[in-house]
């Protein structure tokens, strides 16, 4: 005879069973409340022991055992889901996505930077390890305003653009067709301004070449922290706030040209 114990019912009092209060019959395995078993002094099915109608019990998970099993299964599923959704970018490049880079994790930084994230993450890691601020950024040196604005560092990009526009305005006063003949006839004040702006621009380029990555690291960490404080800390939020904008450098180039042209129209 098989008894249905799916609901974990004590055969004596007909109440639900819980693991911390169960006693199993050593003969047939029937579960009872400990108090019921002790009160009865024997198994509820003792009369059938050793007979053909003796019940055979299979161990069935009791109510709280089901809960524990479901919890374990849910946690296991979460772990599997997390492992399957993990970006292979980190494993392939030997990076710990949870490593701190000085206020932002590798995973957060990669999401914010987007294109060419590996280069910057390696530089940020080296800077933190060596407590250094110096690296070399060729794009920052050769095209500082365009690199800065593509990485959404607007303030220094605008400053360098103003220098470029002023240099363009000054240089356009020179007639390049007869430059060699007229160089000595250029207004001395204008020549001074050309040299001054050229010197400032070169110094700016060198600074961005040497410290551009450090500035970008600070920019990245600061933006990520701000997003967290505002409650916008999803990967999508980081991508929107960071990443590369390839159209801004194009707009900036034509903006500088247009500004210089308009100023020259009024000055000439």
Describe this protein's structure:
By secondary structure, the protein is mainly α. The protein folds into 2 domains: 85 residues; 180 residues, no CATH class. It is built from 12 helices and 2 strands, in the order ββαααααααααααα. The protein has a two-stranded antiparallel sheet. Helix 7 packs across helix 12. The chain starts with 21 loop residues before the first strand and ends with a helix. 21% of the residues are buried.
List keywords for this structure.
2 domains; 268 residues; rod-shaped; 12 helices; 2 strands; mainly alpha; disordered N terminus; two-stranded antiparallel ribbon
Précis, in short:
With 268 residues, the chain is mainly α. It has 12 helices and 2 strands; from the N terminus they run E-E-H-H-H-H-H-H-H-H-H-H-H-H.
Produce the secondary structure layout.
Elements: E1 22-24, E2 31-33, H1 34-40, H2 63-85, H3 88-92, H4 106-113, H5 117-130, H6 138-142, H7 144-150, H8 154-171, H9 179-182, H10 188-229, H11 235-241, H12 247-267
Antiparallel strand pairs: 1-2
Low-confidence stretches are 1-6, 62-67, 176-181
Radius of gyration: 38 Å
How far is the first residue's CA from the last residue's CA? Answer: 110 Å
Strand order of the largest sheet: 1-2
String of helices and strands: EEHHHHHHHHHHHH
Largest sheet: 2 strands, antiparallel
| Number of H/I helices | 12
Tally of extended strands? 2
Helix content: 55-70%
């Amino acid at each position: 005879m098989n008894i249905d114990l799916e609901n974990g019912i004590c055969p004596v009092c007909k109440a639900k069973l819980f693991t911390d209060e169960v006693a199993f019959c050593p003969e047939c395995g029937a579960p009872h409340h400990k108090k019921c078993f002790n009160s009865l002094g024997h198994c509820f099915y003792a009369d059938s022991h050793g007979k053909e109608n003796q019940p055979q019990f299979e161990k069935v998970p009791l109510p709280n055992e089901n809960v524990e099993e479901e919890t374990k299964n849910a946690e296991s599923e979460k772990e599997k889901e997390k492992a399957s959704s993990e970006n292979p970018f980190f494993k392939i490049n030997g990076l710990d996505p949870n490593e701190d880079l000085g206020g932002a994790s590798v995973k957060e930084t990669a999401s914010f930077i987007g294109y060419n994230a590996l280069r910057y993450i390696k530089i940020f890691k080296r800077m933190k390890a060596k407590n250094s601020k110096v690296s070399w950024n060729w794009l920052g040196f050769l095209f500082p305003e365009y690199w800065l604005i593509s990485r959404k560092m607007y303030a220094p990009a605008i400053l360098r653009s103003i220098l470029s526009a002023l240099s363009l305005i000054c240089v356009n006063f020179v007639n390049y067709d007869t430059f060699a003949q007229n160089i000595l006839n250029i207004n001395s004040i204008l020549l001074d301004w050309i040299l001054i702006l050229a010197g400032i621009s070169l110094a700016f380029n060198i600074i961005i070449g040497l410290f551009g990555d450090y500035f970008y690291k600070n920019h990245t960490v600061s933006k990520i922290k701000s997003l967290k404080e505002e409650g916008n800390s999803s990967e999508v939020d980081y991508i929107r706030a960071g990443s590369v904008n390839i159209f801004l450098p194009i707009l900036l180039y034509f903006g500088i040209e247009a500004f210089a042209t308009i100023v020259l129209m009024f000055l000439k």
